[in-house]
Every structure is written in C-alpha cells, then in structure tokens.
Amino acid sequence: MSETVEGREALALLERARAAVDPGLRTALGSLPGPMRRVALYHFGWENADGSPAAGSAGKAIRPALVMAAAEALGGDPAAVAGAAAAVELVHNFTLLHDDVIDEDPTRRHRPTAWTVFGTPDAIIVGDAMLALAYRLLAHDPHPAAGAAAGRIAECVIELCAGQQADCAFEERPPEDVSLEECLAMATAKTGALLGCACAVGALYAGAGEAETAAMDAFGREAGLAFQLIDDLIGIWGDPGRTGKPAGADLAAHKKSLPVVAALGSGTAAAAELALLYRGHMSPGAVARAADAVDRAGGRDWAQLQAADRMARAVHELSRAVPDLAAAGDLLSLAEFVTRRSR
Amino acid sequence: MSETVEGREALALLERARAAVDPGLRTALGSLPGPMRRVALYHFGWENADGSPAAGSAGKAIRPALVMAAAEALGGDPAAVAGAAAAVELVHNFTLLHDDVIDEDPTRRHRPTAWTVFGTPDAIIVGDAMLALAYRLLAHDPHPAAGAAAGRIAECVIELCAGQQADCAFEERPPEDVSLEECLAMATAKTGALLGCACAVGALYAGAGEAETAAMDAFGREAGLAFQLIDDLIGIWGDPGRTGKPAGADLAAHKKSLPVVAALGSGTAAAAELALLYRGHMSPGAVARAADAVDRAGGRDWAQLQAADRMARAVHELSRAVPDLAAAGDLLSLAEFVTRRSR
Where are the coiled-coil regions (chains A, B) (predicted)? Predict the structure, then answer.
C-alpha cells in the first residue's frame, strides 16, 4: 500500500519535471538547423522519422525530477532549476545517442534508434550538438549557481565517458577476467554519476555548501547503482510484456551485467557452467540455462542484496544532506520508484 | 620579402601559443582515466599507440594563437587567455576526432587517425571527453569573461555540428545538385565559425563590447573562409611533398570542394566534362583530367579571387574592431600565414 502511494507520488513528480523541462527542451532542440533538429526531435519521440508529429515518449524525466526535488529538499525553488534540469536531460540524451551508436543498439524507448534511421554520422553529430545545447542553456541561465553547475556537469560527462569506455573494454575481455569491483566502478561511472550530478546540481541551485552538495551527489550515485542492479536483474528475469525486450535479452547478448559477473566470480559449479555457456552462441535454451546458472551461482541474490544495501547507503547520504528526512520525501519516492519500477 | 617577415612573425606567434596552451592541455588530458588518456595523447601526437612518448605534432595552434592575438590587439593580457585558448584548441580537436570517424579518414597530421588505431567507440568517447574538458577548463577559469566565452563556444559547437552535418548530406547528393551558396555556407560553419569564435573569445577576455566582439568574430570567419578556399586549392594542386597527400587527393575522393562546385556551376563544356568524370571511378588519369577541367571551367580562378576577396573583408572587419590597425599586426600576420601556408 505504501509502495503504491510512493509510486503515485513519484509519477506526479516525474510529470511535474516533464512539464517543467519540456518547453525549454523544445525551444533548445527547435533552435537547431533543420536536419539536426529532425534527428533530435525523432530521438526525443516528438516527431516521426518523416517529420510528422509523434506521441512518443521522451523518457521518464528521472534526472530532471531529481534536480528539482534535490533543490526543493534544500529549500530551493524548483521552478528556478528548470533550465539546469533541462541541461541535465540533454546530457542524458547526448549519452543515449552516442551509446546506441557505440553499442549498435537497434531499439530505444520502443522505437528504432536514431542511428538506424538517420545513419551513424547524424547520430554522432546530433549527440555532440545536444551536449553543446546543455552548455548553452547553462551559459544563458542567470542563476548564480549556473557556472558551478556547468563545471560539475563537465566533470560528470568525463566520468560518463570513462564508464562507457570501460564498458566497451570489458566486452573485449573474457567474461571471467572482469572483476566485480571493476564492474561496479563501471556502473557507478556510467549510471550513478549522472544521477548523482542531477542531485548535486539541484543542491547547488539551492545554495548548498560543499558538504551538502557532495552528500546529495553520493545519494544520487548510490540510488543510481541500486537502479542499475535492478535493471540488470530485469535484463535477465524481467517480464517481456513490461520491458519490451525478450526475456534474458542481456544473456543472449553475452552482456557482462552485474549479476552475471557476480555469478562468474562465485567459484561454484554453476559459475563454470555459466562461463561455458557464455563462450558459445546463446540459443533460447542456452539463455534459460544461463539464467538458471546465474541464480544457482548466487548472482541473483547478490544483486538483490547489493541493491538493498545501496539504497540504504543512499538514504544515509541523503540524511547527511537533509537532516530532517521529512523534507526529502520526494527524493526518497523517486529513488524507490526507479529501483522498483518493473518488479 | 615582407611575406617572409610576416611568415616569421606568424611562426613566432604560433610557437608562443603552443608554449602557452600546452601545459594546460597536458594537465587536462593527463587528468583523463588511463584508457581515454592514451587515445587523447596519441591524437595530440604526444604519445605513440603503445603509450611511449612521441615527438609528433599537436597541430599548428592557429586557434590558440588567434585567441591570444585578438585579446592583445584589444589591450588584453595574452597570458590571461591561456586557459580559454586551450579550451578552444580542445574543441578543435574534439571535432577532428569525430570528423575523422564520420569521414572515415585514415590519416591526420601524417599519422593513422585515432579511430583506425583504437577503434570507432574510443574515438567517439574521447572526442566527447575533450569537449567536456574544454567546458571544465572554462568553468574553473576565474576570469570574468569565462562564462560568456563558454556560451559563445557552445553556440560555435552547434554551428560546427551543422557544418559537418551539411558536409555529410552533400556527399549523398549528386555533385551538380549542391549550389555554391550552400557550399560556402557549409564551409563558413565548418571552418570559419571556430576561427571566428577564437577571435571573439580573445575579444571577450580583453573586455570588448558586443560590436567589437562581433567584428572580431567576422574577421576570423572571413579569414577562415579564405583559409578553406586555399586549402581546397591545395587539395587539387598542392605539392604532395609539402601536403603529405597525393596530388588531387580531393578529386580522387570525389570531394565537393569549393573550386569543384564553382566549376560544376559554370555552365561551361569543362563543367559537363567534370560532372561526367565525378560520376565514375577516379583513376590517376581521370584525376589529372578533372583538375584540368576545374581549371578550364574557372573554378581555380574563382577560388583564388574569392580567397582574396574574403581576406579583404577580413581586414575590413578587423579595422572595425581595432581602428588603429597597427595594433592588429599579429592578427594580420596569422591571417596571412594560414592563407599562404602551402602555395
């Protein structure tokens, strides 16, 4: 029951964030020259490939919602952070465009990825332009925290790049050669960093000091890692009807997700079985056997416990930034929401 | 004789710029996590692919030299712009990394391009990181003009993206379908914009007002277009011993460079001949015939006159920013240098 209330609260916060940032995002993307604008609006789900209006989804707006909720939890005005929240969302979408090119992913938000529709050059170029749009938004934002936010976002982008680079490098190595520690560091950089940055930017806009901002960042990072762990579990055991992906999609793609790497490092008979399966082609039967091996090797339990542990750490960090946690209810709702979304 | 003096002056300015920005660039690139750092230092010519030190060239440092000279011409302190000049150089190198991926260029500064050595994903990711490093440099620059410079650079990156996008789109169209006007607009966005931005950033750091900054930008743009026209002439008639590329390399690649597009649009018999040659494979004999056709169709003369005209406009714009042109000698030397470099 309490989960349902929290879920409803989170959905309202996400809707509020979408409404707050969409006008700025539409203006920013609309300012791009024609051919780039078309790719950008397609990627956001606002236009079809032929330029006709689409009712697609621009994503859940988790990061803008975190920027707004973090600012509000520290006494800031959520309306004053709309530009910075839109900038963070542009950064997120810049990484999606480039990651889809790099990973050769065919689908994003239930539609063909931009590079499959417009070609790799356009997807690279429009990703670059989105990152520049984020900085332009911040450069024109008269708020006194805009400069510090721009620096923080630049730092975060470098970390996102490092995470994506590590992810690619892992794909080249044999599965049993990648340690769980390396894998967690990669997930922290690739997913945790931007959620942390979103919270830190909200804190900066509320006039927070260094310690509060760092604690907000840590909250977002830990929640982000919990989110990634749950996402990895869904990639193996998720309901295809809800995820839009076939069951075991990550296993079929030989993805070294966190539960898989934990299982491989368990020293169990199931780990050896999994390693063998990961060396060959993944038929539907092999995918089912691999999922079972991850479970028996303890990868599923580890990921669930690790996710719970990260959420506990997230709440601890949040309590350092906002001693009266009652004021941080929205942030907690959002963190709960992202880590429970498809279970 | 005066050309030699100017050339010597320009070389001294470029050396000064290299010395001013290299420490900041090395610190910035050195702060990247290991695998990204390696790609970045390779791209700059400072390391070999195996990580050993290299004595390669990091480029001519034209853009940092323009930032410094523009600041100085308006009474600014060239030492105070070192960080901003390094940021502009990082932006330039971000575009090189991505453009080489997009254009599938095998060679840059006489070495294999980064994507051919480290793969496309690493080249995309490290390009992204370089753009973020540029913004981080500006975010940490205490100079009061740093914020305005960041906004100007963001605007410029969007224009660079538009230019690269147009360049790609032209490649898909039949040669006679691309108008000279479109081609000039593309070259202005792709080459002129960043030279203009470099000069504008220098002006901002000297505390210049809007009109002076705009005139400085226009100076850099016009000089950049002259540079591109000369570069296009070199791509057809350049001395392979000096350019490091085979003669007529641009023709062999069916490149729609400015002299080619001017020739194709001339309505002459030579234009028809050139269009026919551009439809087929370019043997060395065909390249020679195409070069001759561009010449007979007036493309060579047009480009030379246009370059001279752009330089005249550049000087006119410069005189609006710096009424006593004696104070702008360094900028004139640099503009002369880049437009005369290989003739």
Answer: none
